[in-house]
Amino acid sequence: MQGYSVEERGRPNTAEYRLFFKNTDGKFISPFHDIPLHARAEQDSDVPAKKSKTNWDKNVFNMVVEVPRWTNAKMEIATKELLNPIKQDMKKGKLRYVSNIFPHKGYIWNYGALPQTWEDPKHIDHNTKCCGDNDPIDVCEIGSKVCARGDVIQVKVLGILALVDEGETDWKVIAINIDDPDAEKFNDIEDVKKAQTRLSTSNC
């Protein structure tokens, strides 16, 4: 967790549920604004940074895990609430869940966001010809470990996928936890395809 802790309020699978973040001093912080984007930035902060095999490559970022792999509840950072806790997304007054796609259950990767990022709803992307979705940039972490909701992990970016959701640009960063056994040999999405064709095929 890189020195961060979390505190739950309310019951999971309810509209009232919230997951708040704290720093090493036990003070509440925002996972959206207060956690550095670049993992290296933590070396000079009050958060103890773990030394990585990548020697603090510019390609290593912090990721806030919103949805652990194999779970169904669609969770997100509440960007419009004080302290930006994680909450369950709702649509038309109903809690949102992702469907199971056989043989998998729920999300097939650890899903989350890059802190201190934002997709500008006023900027038209030249690739998608659509504006941003007004949310942090999403991350799909394909490593072998099942993370916990609220984990802050360090990931290496392997690729990126542009989606258009209801007329808005919604980027999905494909990444791997730097502590994963395969992190050293994966440097881009082609490495993933070569080394683990089965994994790559099921995740596409």
From TrEMBL:
Record flagged with keyword Membrane = no
Domain of life, per the record? Eukaryota
Cofactor(s), names only, from the UniProt record: Mg(2+)
Among InterPro entries, the record links this protein to: Pyrophosphatase, Pyrophosphatase_sf
Q: Name one Pfam family in it.
A: Pyrophosphatase
Q: Which GO terms describe its biological process?
A: phosphate-containing compound metabolic process
Enzyme kind, highest EC tier: hydrolase
- Molecular function as annotated in GO: inorganic diphosphate phosphatase activity; magnesium ion binding
Q: Which UniProt key words apply to this protein?
A: Hydrolase, Magnesium, Metal-binding
**Which GO cellular component does the record give, naming just one?**
cytoplasm
Q: Which Gene3D superfamilies match?
A: Inorganic pyrophosphatase (3.90.80.10)
Q: What is its EC number?
A: 3.6.1.1
Report the sequence similarity comment from the record.
Belongs to the PPase family.
Protein's name according to its UniProt entry: inorganic diphosphatase
Organism in which the protein naturally occurs: Xenopus laevis (African clawed frog)
Query: What lineage is on file?
Result: Eukaryota, Metazoa, Chordata, Craniata, Vertebrata
Gene encoding this polypeptide?
MGC115504
